[in-house]
What does this fold into?
Amino acid sequence: MTSPEGARTLLEVKDIGKTYGSVIALRDVSTVVRAGEVTCVLGDNGAGKSTLIKILAGVHQHDRGSLLSEGREIRFSSPREALDHGIATVYQDLAVVPLMSVWRNFFLGSEPTVGFGPFRFLDRRKGRSVTREALAGMGIDLRDVEQPVGTLSGGERQCVAIARAVHFGAKVLILDEPTAALGVKQAGVVLKYVARARDRGLGVVLITHNPHHAYPVGDRFLLLKRGRALGCHRKADISLAELTRQMAGGAELEAPAHELRGDAG
It folds into this structure.
């Protein structure tokens, strides 16, 4: 399925909705994820960002609307099924084993082996070599892939997780608040590798509450508030200032700001 702009549409949600009992978590949300583009999903806590990515990642199923994978309507029954469709999710906690080496975390659950039957053994040499090559292919230069992943900075761990998803054939890469707990420099490093994943033809979904992190790498911006979409904008159609204003509440902030100016006077 090809978009009007020429990029292939990998994932699309149309008027998607999700409720938990009487709580409406999402209502009538629509957006697309295209190859070689970054779709940023922005909103404060409780906006519905986590619910949306859990539907895309196969953790939860939607109640209303449609989820399309490369033009075909689908309803994922598990994260494994989403992964089989090329949708890889890197959560904020990364799910790494801190005391295990970088290369073991890179392959976690898919380690290369030699031999056969009961005589199969872990192929450490191949594991280290493939990890170095995959990281280098993304422009990531680690001192030693044998070092425990827990010794890496938060930004480096995010970059390893991104490289892992790319290596194992992800078409869509979902990143859950990858810069939330990072300083300015480390956040910049992660965003650089987000851009590299995009440039390699992946469709990237970047979940964030920070428009200053989203705008430099984003191609499309979906704004959520209390489970509803405030809008979905192409980068050419919205400035960083307007994106920040809409996300912050715009008119809702003007009244308190006016009152504060009055108090100061």
